[in-house]
Amino acid sequence: MTTTKLIAGFALGTSVLATAAAAQECGSDPVTLNAYFETGFPLPTELATEFTNQFPNVTFDIREDQFANLMENTPRLLSQENAPDLVRLPSISDLVTNGLLMNLDGYYEDFGWDSFPEGNLVQLRIDESGRPRGVGSLYAMGLNYSTTGIFYNKDLAEQIGMTETPTTLAELDDALAAAEEAGILPIIQWNKDTAGLAFPLQNLMGVYGDPEPINAWIFQQEGATIDTPENLEAAQHLNGWIEAGYFPEDANAVDYFTMMSRFTGGEGLFMFNGDWESANLQNAMGDSVGFFLMPPNPESGRHATMSSPLTFGIGANAENPDCAAFFLDWVATNETAREINVAVGGSNPGGPADMEIPPQEEGSLIAQTLAAGQVIGADNGAMDFIANATGAIFAAGWTPELQKMVGGVQDPEGLLDDVQEEYEDQLSR
Amino acid sequence: MTHLENATAGAPKAPAPRPAATRRARRRRRDAVMFIGPAFLIYAAFVIVPLGMSVYYSLLRWDGIGPISGATFYGLKNYIEVLTDDDLLQIIGNAFQLAAWFTIPPVVLGLAVASAIRSQMAGRFGTATRTILFLPQVIPLVAAGIAWSWMYDRNGVVNQFLSLIGLESWTRGWLGDFTYALPAVGIIGAWVLLGLCTMLLVTGIARIDGSLYEAAKLDGARPRHEFRFVTLPGLKNEIGICVTVTIIQALSSFDIVYVATAGGPGIETTVPGLEIYRLAFAHRQVGLASALAIVLMILVLACVLPIQWALRERKQ
Amino acid sequence: MTFPRIRTSPLFARGLIILLMVVTLLPFLSMLSAALAPSGTYPSGLEWPADPQWGNFAKAWQVANMDELLLSSILIVLGTVPAAVLFATMAGFGLAKLTTPRSAWFYLVFVIGLTLPFEAVITPLYFEIREIGLLNTRGAIILPLIGLYMPFSVFWMRAHFMSIPNDLSEASQLDGARRWQEFWMVQVPLARPAIMSLGILLFLWTWNQFLLPVVLVQEPNRRTMAGALGAFQGQWGTDIPLLCAGSLIILAPTVILFLIFQRQFVAALLQGAVKG
């Protein structure tokens, strides 16, 4: 094995050689990678299929689960003997604390991942003790690097006379009010199973404040709090939208996929979501869908939004870690993989900084979202998701509290108080 | 008829041990061990031992991933948390509300049917009734949960029906509504248990001596007196059974909630069974999960035992 | 609403019963109508689709590996039910005929488990099964289930043997091999109805068991049908027609058996409730 790694390391100079040598990470004997993916997102499976095409000795045993179940099951699965080789990880910190994830520093060296933009990998680094994130060893890789923002239905926008996308929060508010007045649902957002209102909330946080303190909180830095005056303003603004009826009345009964089918079916002017849906939306809605970033913070002029890796890790007890790591490298460096990545996934495929993003049709939705990603990069405005701060903060904090806020039984102060309390409680365990 | 009353009645009276009989008695004891042994061993291995471990875990603070030797002793703090934490108390309260929903509609409807026909259901109609009303009893609860999630969907039958009769303003996403989610889940349980309770009560009422009704009529009893003084007392036993079964089902209603609402919105429909699962495996608080498990077990007993005692007393 | 009308009006009774039957059937019908909508669409309530997509059932069968699921469920039932019935019959006999009042507490130990919710022991069971190395095997469902069924099954069989008069067996006079023989040749045949009912109940409970597979077995193809339905919902729950088709397939086997052996099932379920 050491020889293989040496060869792989040695051959990095030319990518063809690197691929050929590194392919040996999966050997030539039949290998079955045990994989655990998220339901409803075809990208990982399509990449796996292409991988098997190129390396026929490798097959995938794929199990899928919906996001909430995935978060619930991952710790248990990873602690068992047949731990997945490849697993979709919404949140990594607790898993590292418990020693359930493979440290990828060795592969970082072997595959030369230092040629990847460090900004892409920083969210996947974590101190050995499990906190804080953003420093220390690499424990996961991104299949791609997403950008979130607001998709809008151009036909409905025309109906309310919205000819240009809002550039300030006030303009966005005006558009929402105009839609409401015209009898159009202003925002279709899911809030069942997991709280989709966390998306607009965090975007609003990025308008009222800077992304750094939010990232500090997500990275579990000492003394970080979500309960700040800026975030309170954001939560109040969101609550204003709820009270104005901008979200569907039955938002708590709308799950992610219902939201998608309702938006593509022409219901809802706006939808807060990520570029992983770009390809899907383009197919379903053609030219009548557009994308824009949340308007910037009026004081700093910076755009900020959730932008994070589509995180995949390797189980510490996995049987085929080398092959799984090679798969992750292949996804970022193989041309075909990168094309599939952008065409199906819609997001930036990452990989070596000097590799071009596969070209997209001018003006297509994917091109728009990829361009938005550049803006966020330039403004240094990327935030991870507030839902990923700890393994359970989404399930035990944001989701129930935001559902309560939609149900009218929670106020903005209580929302932030309760989430912060849950956060501290979880960190103290 | 009920389990506890027989418990102490014990086995056949053995003759007083005479010297000549001791050998036989010893042999019989050996045979008893042979007959009871396998059942007891597997019961001990997968019920008694886990119960003991549950009690042990409930005194620890343990994430379930590291070795248990690394867990810290936590005394009764987990129990204190179960009994003082607002969320956990609400979850326990949810279970009781669900119990009411699982119990009252099936028993009331069952009583209505039983007193309306007051005889065994015979013939083809009877068979058809029995067959259909029992269907929910033979399908997995998960399937019931999925079927009803779809019924309650925005596009589902419930809203469709309301629109049809002009109550459009009542339509809503039932399982996501803070006011209606718990009752909606409760109705799923009621649907499952309706057939069983109805048939139990119909069978029961057919056993009531017809002359009691005759006598009541001769005394000039009005029908509601008849119901109160003949039907209800005559069915006490069956009602007790229904309530026992429905309460046990409600307090351990993991399957339905898991698929229908996953405990939401907020924690409106989270029940102890689901929370135990979450705490132990997702939030890695094995100690707290175990304490909640013990409390749940005690709660079930606290609900069921009084009913059983009441039934037993009445008989004596 | 007055009672005389209710009682004297068979029409009312019939109407009420028919209403209950409709309510009982409605969820099944609504699932069927959704299952026949084109896969991947968002169907609408109860309506017979213009172009029923019976192919959804074939697709659900195929994506869920239904044949493997059926086999798995059958294996789990075969591993669980006969053993549980055998142990319970022996123990019921032993407790009814071979113990003295002094050891009645022993029976109480079994009875205490009657109301135990499975959720109360699932956490330690997980660690125990992990320790034994059975996680993700069918044994992880079979062994605990046999144990968890013992309270009810032993209670059930003991009640049966208590109702058999003593002089029939003269059990106390026999010993060793002859007692064993008498148990098999005389007692078990006599207990056949009780054993049948118990078998039916345990079959249903095993087939429909959800919690144990969800926690202890990740591989859907090693789960029970109900447990596999959980995984199926996880993977295909975003496609309502397919989900409904899969659910209908998964609930079909017990429903078909129930329709064939309706009388036995109803009797078993009613007695099961009464005794449980």
TrEMBL record, chain A:
<dbReference type="InterPro" id="IPR006059">
    <property type="entry name" value="SBP"/>
</dbReference>
<comment type="similarity">
    <text>Belongs to the bacterial solute-binding protein 1 family.</text>
</comment>
<comment type="subunit">
    <text>The complex is composed of two ATP-binding proteins (UgpC), two transmembrane proteins (UgpA and UgpE) and a solute-binding protein (UgpB).</text>
</comment>
<keyword id="KW-0813">Transport</keyword>
<dbReference type="GO" id="GO:0042597">
    <property type="term" value="C:periplasmic space"/>
</dbReference>
<comment type="function">
    <text>Part of the ABC transporter complex UgpBAEC involved in sn-glycerol-3-phosphate (G3P) import. Binds G3P.</text>
</comment>
<dbReference type="Pfam" id="PF13416">
    <property type="entry name" value="SBP_bac_8"/>
</dbReference>
<feature type="signal peptide">
    <location>
        <begin position="1"/>
        <end position="20"/>
    </location>
</feature>
<protein>
    <recommendedName>
        <fullName>sn-glycerol-3-phosphate-binding periplasmic protein UgpB</fullName>
    </recommendedName>
</protein>
<keyword id="KW-0732">Signal</keyword>
<dbReference type="InterPro" id="IPR050490">
    <property type="entry name" value="Bact_solute-bd_prot1"/>
</dbReference>
UniProtKB/TrEMBL annotation, chain C:
<feature type="transmembrane region" description="Helical">
    <location>
        <begin position="240"/>
        <end position="261"/>
    </location>
</feature>
<protein>
    <submittedName>
        <fullName>Carbohydrate ABC transporter permease</fullName>
    </submittedName>
</protein>
<feature type="transmembrane region" description="Helical">
    <location>
        <begin position="139"/>
        <end position="157"/>
    </location>
</feature>
<keyword id="KW-0813">Transport</keyword>
<comment type="similarity">
    <text>Belongs to the binding-protein-dependent transport system permease family.</text>
</comment>
<feature type="transmembrane region" description="Helical">
    <location>
        <begin position="188"/>
        <end position="207"/>
    </location>
</feature>
<feature type="transmembrane region" description="Helical">
    <location>
        <begin position="69"/>
        <end position="93"/>
    </location>
</feature>
<dbReference type="GO" id="GO:0005886">
    <property type="term" value="C:plasma membrane"/>
</dbReference>
<dbReference type="Pfam" id="PF00528">
    <property type="entry name" value="BPD_transp_1"/>
</dbReference>
<keyword id="KW-1003">Cell membrane</keyword>
<dbReference type="GO" id="GO:0055085">
    <property type="term" value="P:transmembrane transport"/>
</dbReference>
<keyword id="KW-0472">Membrane</keyword>
<feature type="domain" description="ABC transmembrane type-1">
    <location>
        <begin position="70"/>
        <end position="261"/>
    </location>
</feature>
<feature type="transmembrane region" description="Helical">
    <location>
        <begin position="12"/>
        <end position="37"/>
    </location>
</feature>
<keyword id="KW-0812">Transmembrane</keyword>
<keyword id="KW-1133">Transmembrane helix</keyword>
<feature type="transmembrane region" description="Helical">
    <location>
        <begin position="105"/>
        <end position="127"/>
    </location>
</feature>
<dbReference type="InterPro" id="IPR000515">
    <property type="entry name" value="MetI-like"/>
</dbReference>
<dbReference type="InterPro" id="IPR035906">
    <property type="entry name" value="MetI-like_sf"/>
</dbReference>
